[in-house]
Amino acid sequence: MPLQPQPNLPILTSPILLLGGGGHALVVAEAAALAGATIAGFFDDDAGALLARLGVCTRLGSLADVAGMTGPRILCIGDVGARRRLAARLDLSNAATVIHPRAFVSPSAIVGGGVFIGPGAVIHAKARIGDHAIVNSGAIIEHECVIGSNTHIAPGSVLGGNVSVGPGTLVGLGASVLPGTTIGSGATIGAGAVVVRDVGDNATVKGVPATS
Ligand SMILES: CC(C)(COP(=O)(O)OP(=O)(O)OC[C@H]1O[C@@H](n2cnc3c(N)ncnc32)[C@H](O)[C@@H]1OP(=O)(O)O)[C@@H](O)C(=O)NCCC(=O)NCCS
Q1: Is residue 104's pLDDT more than 90?
Q2: Which end of the chain is more exposed for a tag (fewer CB within 10 A), N or C?
Q3: Mind listing the pLDDT tens digit for each residue in 170-197?
Q4: How confident is the model at residue 4, as a pLDDT?
Q5: H-type helices in 79-136, by residue range?
Q6: Who lines ligand 1 at CB under 6 A?
Q7: The total number of structural domains that make up the chain
Q8: Residue 165 CA to ligand 1 centre (angstroms)
Q9: Which domain, by its residues, includes 102?
């Protein structure tokens, strides 16, 4: 079967609402702009949030004010716990997926709504990325991996083929996960860890090899 260039990717509709105005929002805003989208503004409970201080875009209100909005939006908070709490109380149904133009997404991969894929990230064949997940700068998701919703694959992490990561999990900076491994939901993989065996729900592991 001939493959079309990235036919599965969502069309980036504009203008986008950024939910959060900190460091991760800055990265998402730049990627969205490079991908050709416009930003309507951001919502953050902190009126002096980074995006406002840097003059990147306008603060439209606190996160509670998102309730009255209809435009496409993306959750822009890196912390997995905060994401989980916000996802439970905000309407994320009109979700915008932002893919940095320097990311590679296989045409056979499936990317959910509200996902952010950072510069240099690689999503290989038949991988599936759940809604509102983050695949951050330079992360590599090998073939047939399944990434749960709201999971954050931090910069420089490498997941071997057929790895499964549950929802709401953090795979920390530069961690490696051996092929075929299963990581549960709500888990935390420490920065630099090498995961060589399955990790349960809500577990925290770190080190080489990773242990709790
Ligand atoms: C593993 C982790 C979750 C532990 O957090 P924590 O429970 O708050 O741990 P602490 O900072 O209290 O450190 C506890 C011990 O673990 C060690 N430790 C902390 N992180 C470690 C890591 N990634 N690998 C190995 N050891 C680590 C500390 O040195 C300390 O050791 P000590 O008791 O001998 O002094 C955290 O350090 C981590 O790596 N988080 C990932 C962060 C990340 O990558 N975020 C993505 C940003 S985009």
Answers
A1: yes
A2: N
A3: 999 999 999 999 999 999 999 999 999 9
A4: 46
A5: 80-89
A6: 78, 136, 154-155, 172-173, 188, 190-192, 204, 206-207
A7: 2
A8: 20
A9: 97-204
